[in-house]
Specification:
The complex is a heterodimer of chains A (about 190) and B (about 525).
Chain A: E1 15-16, E2 21-24, H1 28-39, E3 44-47, H2 52-65, E4 70-74, H3 76-87, E5 91-101, E6 106-114, H4 115-126, H5 132-140, E7 143-144, E8 151-159, E9 169-176
Parallel strand pairs in A: 2-3, 2-4
Antiparallel strand pairs in A: 1-7, 4-9, 5-6, 5-9, 6-8
Chain B: H1 8-22, E1 27-28, H2 31-35, E2 53-57, H3 62-75, E3 79-82, E4 100-104, E5 111-115, E6 120-123, H4 129-139, E7 143-144, H5 155-160, E8 178-184, E9 190-192, E10 226-233, E11 235-236, E12 240-248, H6 254-266, E13 274-276, H7 287-293, H8 301-311, E14 316-324, H9 326-340, E15 347-355, H10 360-365, E16 395-398, E17 401-402, H11 406-422, E18 443-444, E19 447-450, H12 456-475, H13 485-493, H14 497-513, H15 532-536
Parallel strand pairs in B: 2-4, 3-4
Antiparallel strand pairs in B: 1-2, 5-6, 6-10, 7-11, 8-9, 8-10, 12-14, 12-15, 13-14, 16-19, 17-18
Helix pairs in contact in B: 1-3, 6-11, 11-12
Classes of the chains: A alpha+beta (about 190), B alpha+beta (about 525).
The complex binds flavin-adenine dinucleotide.
Flavin-adenine dinucleotide (FAD) binds near residues 157 and 161 of chain B.
């Protein structure tokens, strides 16, 4: 299931499966991501913005013992908390995409982070036919590793999804800092 | 970036020595790593005055801290200790002096001791409220912690900046409830205060003073040492918890309401009183309220009372919280009602009752910090929503201390509303604003000012308004209890009695304890001798 997508320029050793996915349960986009992630065999954790329980019962232990990449679609406030925590365990945000539905009927996706991830996510986004949630789930099954490389930003426009999104969502990937250093420290 | 006044060669030598002490993995010098120590809520985002860090060093023991400090002292490298570095709204993990080396104590995360018969804990700086809570829960210990809104902060770090929580009595003043410290002085010497100074001390976490002068206060909000352990008094886990609400109909009823709450609180009957107004802020205001508020000079007391009467929601609300045995809390609520019964038109509502252990449903519904459960729910208020259409990238807390009286609340409302009017700014204060009550014996008339990562002009304006409010507050005898580094000079300048005698005393102590001025230069207006003239301005 977690195979290489066609045409991806990296070998399997340069990809990693997301340990789990984090989903904002009030967002149609995030719920689409959740449904597809479960299809791909990924464990999905649902939140309602507040990350306390998720962090206290799962992530704290997991990041202490085996920090692994994690993908999510959440509100920016949840990501702020996760990102701030992640630093304490030697983790970083590898990639983020802020999604906004514009009044002109298009959706705007501002992608930033590690160059390799941004490039590939941008290609995926352009071809996703407005179904970013599904596309991002398949991405999460075989994430290109962030390589402490250059930071990049790209803006992609797509058709707006066929549902109302009450609040702007952020898709993101958090993973161990590229030098593979772990420990409870920024 | 280099620390000010330090050559590249000296700095490289220092980094090498730090690596020798803590290991290469725990010295951070790359741009990407040191950028993480910027203040996430900086009011200077994208400006040249943004405070930056030259490196970070993360020791794991007090002995390592001592060796790092000795190196810094020998080479005159400015260092800035943080515990978990989450001081958001008050400077984050950034130092006052750009180019300082952050001494990051997160790895020192051992809970040394928790005693649930004598009710205290001794912890290291990297222990967060979540960590201490987990430690207590996993062992089934019968004590509660007192936690600030975000549970990810450090028990020590929060106390060091005079942080506060939501629990019972003086426990929620976190510096006040500490008991004994271990401190690394700027020359690297390790000192213990209070009973901890006694080798084999048996009462470090219980009796504050030891014998002789009590020096602990010198290490809070200052730069005289690096704290590596601290004791804290804890609340015995209560059997149950009850809340009640008292609603009064008129604006001036706040005077009797506060008097009653003070009586109950200072006698140990209630926990933290929480004030509010059922009429809310401008956000939910109807047309009538909006036109009242836009009257030149603002609405009169009679206008407001009439409006409150019409809406039949009451003017001010007080939530009281009781902790203890079931029989006792019920009797306390009855007594509280008697205390307020003299206020004409007063209404009472009994609120939540929890017999511990709480059910999940009770926990989900509760204001968790009031029952000692750390969490991060507070950050939800920052999300974009119908009520918050333009979320910000953070905020600065303006925190003036005012007297614990209804008169002072009304005066503060009027004074600050006028200050906003004078500055032609939308007011953060209304006739319904109430203070925070974290301090046991005073109010904090707190306001959160927005900061943005992409709006330099707005941030500049915010800094101006903030400075103006510091001045206005000082003119009325109100000083801030805590403030972000950018305002620390001005805020401490206001404490100027007898030609800044207190500042001069701090400086005398600084020169004696830290003659090279290596620790937290500029913290709360205390600059090392060699920087004093240039930085004070
Ligand atoms: C939404 C929101 C709500 C908040 N609510 C509260 C609240 O309810 N109560 C409250 O108090 N605060 C609150 N804050 C402010 C802040 O987040 C907390 O106070 C937080 O606990 C402070 O960060 P910290 O514990 O990581 O301390 P740190 O950042 O580690 O320390 C704070 C400062 O103390 C000094 N210091 C720390 N450790 C040492 C040491 N070992 N030796 C010497 N000096 C040291 C340093 O100057 C440091 O910068 C809130 C902030 C936000 C954003």
């Amino acid at each position: 299931m977690a195979g290489e997508r066609e045409g991806a320029p990296y070998s399997n050793s340069e990809r990693v499966r997301s340990g789990a996915v984090i989903v904002e349960m009030t967002s149609p986009l995030a719920l689409a991501f959740r449904a597809e992630s479960i299809q791909w065999g990924l464990t999905a954790h649902g939140i309602h913005d507040d990350i306390t329980d998720l962090w206290y019962h799962h992530l704290d232990r997991q990041w202490r013992t085996a920090p692994a990449p994690l993908a999510g679609i959440t509100l920016s406030t949840s990501l702020f908390c996760l990102e701030t925590f992640a630093r304490d365990y030697g983790m970083r945000v590898w990639f983020r995409a802020v999604h906004k539905n514009r009044p002109d009927g298009l959706a705007e996706h501002v992608l930033s982070g590690d160059e390799r991830l941004v490039e590939q996510a941008a290609a995926l986004c352009r071809g996703c036919d407005g179904e970013w949630g599904r596309a991002f789930a398949s991405f999460a099954t075989a994430l290109p590793l962030a390589k402490s490389g250059k930071i990049q930003q790209k803006i992609v426009e797509t058709a707006a999804p066929p549902y109302e999104e009450p609040r702007p969502m952020v898709s993101w990937i958090i993973g161990p800092r590229p030098r593979n250093q772990s420990g409870p420290i920024s | 970036m280099l620390p000010p006044g330090v050559s590249a060669g000296t700095f490289a030598g220092a980094v090498k020595q730090f690596q020798g002490i803590v290991g290469k993995d725990w010295v951070f010098t790359s741009d990407e790593d040191v950028a993480l120590y910027k203040d996430s809520y900086s009011p200077f985002w994208g400006e040249k005055d943004e405070i930056l860090v030259s490196a970070a060093v993360a020791p794991s023991t007090a002995e390592e801290v001592s060796r790092v400090v000795r190196v810094a002292n020998t080479l005159k490298i400015p260092i800035y200790p943080i515990s978990t570095g989450k001081n958001l709204g008050y400077g984050g993990s950034a130092p006052n002096l750009s180019g300082s080396v952050v001494l990051d104590l997160k790895r020192m995360n051992r809970v040394i001791e928790v005693d649930d018969k004598r009710h205290f804990a001794i912890v290291e700086p990297g222990v967060s409220y979540f960590d201490l809570y987990r430690y207590i829960q996993e062992r089934g210990l019968k004590v509660w912690i007192d936690t600030p809104d975000p549970g990810w902060g450090s028990v020590i770090g929060n106390a060091m900046d005079h942080g506060v929580g939501y629990g019972f009595g003086p426990f929620r003043d976190h510096f006040y409830s500490h008991c004994g410290m271990e401190v690394v002085l700027p020359n690297g010497e390790i000192v213990r205060t209070g009973m901890g100074a006694l080798p084999n001390a048996k009462t470090w976490g219980e009796y504050h003073y030891g014998v002789g002068p009590y020096v602990d206060g010198l290490f809070g909000q200052s730069n005289f040492g690096v704290v590596t352990k601290m004791g804290f008094h804890l609340l015995p886990a209560p059997e149950s918890y009850l809340t009640g609400t008292v609603i009064v109909p008129k604006r001036n009823d706040i005077v009797s309401l506060v008097e009653g709450a003070n009586l109950l609180e200072h006698a140990g009957v209630i926990g933290m009183p929480e004030y509010g107004s059922p009429l809310g802020g401008f956000g939910g205001a109807d047309q009538e309220m909006r036109s009242l508020m836009s009257k030149p000079g603002g609405p009169s007391v009679a206008d407001l009372d009439q409006y409150a009467e019409k809406t039949n929601r009451g003017f001010f609300r007080l939530t009281v919280q009781f902790y203890g045995a079931q029989k006792v809390v019920r009797a306390q609520w009855e007594y509280a009602k008697e205390v307020f019964a003299g206020i004409r038109g007063v209404k009472f509502n009994e609120g939540d009752f929890i017999k511990f252990p709480a059910t999940q449903e009770q926990l989900d519904k509760a204001h968790k910090v009031s029952i000692g459960v750390p969490n991060l729910a507070i950050f939800q208020i920052g999300a974009r929503s119908e009520f918050n259409p333009s979320p910000t990238d953070g905020h600065l807390w303006f925190s003036p201390i005012i007297p614990k009286s209804g008169e002072a609340i009304l005066e503060a409302q009027d004074v600050f509303m006028k200050a906003f009017r004078d500055m032609n700014m939308p007011s953060l204060v209304s006739p319904f604003s109430t203070p925070a009550t974290w301090m046991y014996r005073a109010f904090v008339f707190i306001m959160g000012f927005p900061v943005y990562r992409n709006n330099i002009e707005q941030n500049k304006k915010t800094r101006e308004v903030f400075k103006h409010l510091i001045q206005v507050a000082a003119e009325h005898g109100w000083g801030e209890y805590r403030t972000p580094p950018v305002f620390q000079q001005q805020v401490t300048d206001a404490y100027s009695y007898n030609n800044h005698a207190l500042r001069r005393l701090h400086e005398t102590l600084k020169d004696a304890v830290d003659p090279n001025g290596i620790i937290s230069a500029g913290r709360y207006g205390i600059w090392p001798k060699q920087m004093r003239g240039q930085k004070k301005a």
